[in-house]
Amino acid sequence: MENTLNQKSDDFIKNEVVGIERRMFNVRIILIALGYAIMTLGLNAIRATAPLWLVWPLIIVQFTLYFSIFISSYRRAIVCGLNKNIGLIIFTALAILARVNDWELAIIPLTVIIMIIVSMKTKNVSDGNKHLLPNHMDK
Predict the structure, then answer these.
(1) Which domain holds residue 114?
(2) For the whole model, what pTM was predicted?
């Protein structure tokens, strides 16, 4: 009986840690994507008339947000079980392809949606949060 109680409590703790990681990723990726969209729309509105000293720092912030979408997705995909090398190839290709013409209008939302779905289905805990699990569960 004590063993099943320990197993239930261990499963509860693992499910909570996995749930927290999911929610943190979902909020992070959505905020990054919204920030990128707002920055892009704002830059498109002021690019022609604003001085260069204002435009270039905003472009740097925009590119930082752009690459953050793919870096966050790559890191979560690794936690979900994707091979590191394959993930690097996939997300690098997506980052490059999204810069072609207006493909970012399709690639970024699809990447965000697919990563949220994949993230919701995973039961893995990231290496950074394995310390939150009971000692015998951190395999």
Answers:
(1) 2-126
(2) 0.88
